[in-house]
Design a protein that fits this description.
single chain, alpha+beta, globular
């Protein structure tokens, strides 16, 4: 069972995640559930994931692949190129919906492909922002009344 949490604090955002994917009497499997994109001085974006590992990793792989162009520069429509954290959350949701649509046959066979994400960070000198992206690809933003999200 995965557990991830992120909280807005005075100095920014704190992120935490476990790395366990399964455990048995003689077998413990791990996989990183936290992905960080950083351009020093320009942006830091963190994505935490929980749920079906193949689904979450497909979303992360697409986000990574689409973050830079063929010359290694930030792609303007990718996670390293968008101008607002809102657009990052939207991009994660759209990518999740794309993967869900692609895996319709798997879902229809009864496999639980549900997953969710916490997305947060800072672009430029703007205020850090934190979002929770639901399994359907829609999202909400943390507020002064609800300063943290947990998934798992």
């Amino acid at each position: 069972m995965t557990y991830c949490v992120a909280a807005l604090v005075e100095e920014g955002i704190v992120f935490a995640s476990d790395s366990r994917t399964s455990a048995g009497a003689n077998d413990i499997a791990t996989f990183c559930k936290m992905m960080v994109w950083e351009q020093p001085g320009e942006r830091v974006i963190v994505v935490l994931s929980s749920g079906n590992l193949s689904m979450t990793q497909s979303v992360i792989a697409l986000l990574k692949m689409r973050s830079k162009d063929e010359d290694g520069n930030a792609h303007p429509d990718g996670i390293l190129g968008v101008k607002q954290m809102y657009d990052v959350a939207k991009l994660v949701g759209v990518t999740l919906r794309e993967v869900i649509a692609r895996e319709k046959t798997v879902r229809d066979s009864g496999v639980d492909i549900g997953c969710s994400f916490i997305v947060g960070g800072q672009i430029g000198h703007k205020t850090p922002r934190l979002f929770r992206v639901y399994a359907e690809g829609n999202f909400i933003e943390a507020t002064p009344e609800t300063t943290y999200f947990q998934i798992g």
